Amino acid sequence: MTIFVTGGAGYIGSHVIVELLAQGYDVVAADNFSNSKQEAVWRTRQVSGADFPFYEMDICDVDGVATILTAHEIDCVIHLAGLKAVGESVSKPLEYYSNNIVSTISLLTAMEECAVRKLIFSSSATVYSGDNEMPLSEESRTGNCTNPYGWTKFMCEQIMTDFSKAHKDFSVVLLRYFNPIGAHSSGMIGEDPQDIPNNLMPYIAQTAVGQLPSLSIFGDDYDTPDGTGVRDYIHVSDLATGHAAAVDYLDTQSGVSIFNLGTGKGASVLELVTAFEKAAGLKIPKKIVARRPGDLAVCYASTEKAKRELGWEAKKTIEDACADTWRWQQNKQRDSTHV
Ligand code: NAD
Ligand code: UFG
C-alpha cells in the first residue's frame, strides 16, 4: 500500500513517515517548507534507513497533487499540511483560512479526480468547545473555537464530512490530537520551531540550552492540584503509531470516523518542567506570570474509543518525551554551533 503524506517535512509528518516505513508501507511525501526545512527530509530518510519520493509542493496546487496521486498509485492520504500557530492565526486570519482550507479542498478535488478514497486528517482537541466536562470524548460538543486556527480545523472536519456524505465510497478518519511532545528516540528528528515557540515543550527545551532566558508559566491560580494548567501530553512517536492504526482501520471502514489521540492522563505545567529538569539534569529558569487569554485550566482525552476500535493506545510517558526532547535539542545545538 502506498501512502501520500502532506506536510511530510513537519514535526509530526516526519515521525509518521518513520513509523509507516517501519511497518512496511510505501510512502510518498510533499511539503512547501513554509514551516520546515529540506534537512528534515534528509534526517527522516537517515532515521528510517529507507528512501521515499519527496516533492516540494504546495498542496493548494490541485494539478500537482493529482500528478503525484496518479504517478505513485496512491491508496491513502494522510493530510498534515497546515499552518498551526494559534497566536499567529489571530493576527493573520486570512492566511490561516486560505492555506488550511484551500489546501484541504484542493486535496479532496485531486483525490476525487484520481479516485483515491481514503484520507486521514490531522485535527485537534481545539475543535472541542471550552464548556465540556473532562475527559473529552469524541461525542463532546465542538465549536465555539477561540481562534481562527481552531476554526480552520473545525471547518475542514465539516468539509470532509460533507464530501464523505456525497461520495459513499470515500472514507475519512479525523484524528484529534491532544498535546504532541517529544522527539524520535534517535535524537535525529523533532520539533524545530522557526520563531520563538508558542508551545510549552519547545519553550522549555530552548530555555534549557540558554537560547531563551526564562520560561514564563502562564498562571498558578487554576483549580488544579498545583495551580498550573493541565494538558494531555502525548509522545509524537505514539501519535505516529496512532496514524498507522488509522491506516489499518480504513481497510475495513467507510464513512467518517473520529478518534482522539491522547494518553487519557493530564500533567501540569510544573510536572512537565520538573520531568524535563530531571531528564536534562539542570534547572530551568522560570517565573509565574498572568494567565494566557483563552487557556483552559484542564484538558485531557478519553481514549476508550481509540483503544476499542483502533486497537491503539499511547505507551510512552512524559519522562520518555522529556529525555527524547533533550537529546534532540542538544543535537540541534551542536549542529548549529558546528556548521
Ligand atoms: P509543522 O508546522 O511542523 O508541520 C506542518 C507542515 O506542513 C510544515 O512542514 C509546513 O511547511 C507544511 N505546510 C503548511 N502548509 C502547506 C501547504 N499549503 N502545502 C504544503 N505544505 C504545507 O506542524 P506539526 O506540528 O507537524 O502539525 C502537523 C499537523 O497537525 C498540522 O495540520 C497541525 O495543525 C496539526 N496539529 C498539530 C498539533 C501540535 O500541537 N503540533 C496539535 C493538533 C493538530
Ligand atoms: N504554557 C506556559 N508557558 C508557555 C507556554 C505554555 O505556561 O510558554 C502553558 C499553557 O498555559 C498551558 C500549557 O502550558 O497550560 C500547554 O500550552 P501549549 O501552548 O503548549 O498547548 P495548548 O494546550 O495551549 O495548545 C496546543 C496547541 C493547539 C492544540 C492544542 C490541543 O497549541 O494548537 O494543544 O491539541 F489545539
What does this structure look like?
The chain is an alpha/beta fold. The protein is 42% helix and 17% strand. It contains eleven helices and 14 strands. It has helices at 11-22, 38-48, 62-71, 86-91, 93-114, 148-166, 200-208, 236-250, 269-280, 304-310, 318-338, and strands at residues 2-6, 26-31, 54-56, 76-79, 118-124, 171-177, 179-181, 215-218, 230-231, 233-235, 255-261, 267-268, 286-289, 298-299. The strands form four sheets. It has a seven-stranded parallel β-sheet with strand order 3-2-1-4-5-6-11, with helices on both faces. A three-stranded mixed β-sheet has the order 12-9-14. A two-stranded parallel sheet has the order 7-10. β1 (2-6), α1 (11-22) and β2 (26-31) form a beta-alpha-beta unit. It is globular, with a radius of gyration of 19 Å. It binds nicotinamide-adenine-dinucleotide (NAD) and uridine-5'-diphosphate-4-deoxy-4-fluoro-alpha-D-galactose.
Summarize the entry for a quick read.
Helix content is 42%, strand content 17%. It is built from 11 helices and 14 strands. The N and C termini lie far apart (39 Å).
Largest sheet: 7 strands, parallel
Q: Element order, helices and strands?
A: EHEHEHEHHEHEEHEEEHEEHEEHH
Radius of gyration: 19 Å
Low-confidence stretches: none
The span between the termini is 39 Å
Q: How many helices in DSSP terms?
A: 11
* Ligand kinds: nicotinamide-adenine-dinucleotide, uridine-5'-diphosphate-4-deoxy-4-fluoro-alpha-D-galactose
Strand content: 15-25%
Number of E strands: 14
Q: Which strand order does the major sheet show?
A: 3-2-1-4-5-6-11
Task: Assign an overall shape.
Answer: globular
Structural class, judged by helices and strands?
alpha/beta
Average pLDDT figure: 96
Roughly how much helix do the residues carry, as a percent range? Answer: 40-55%
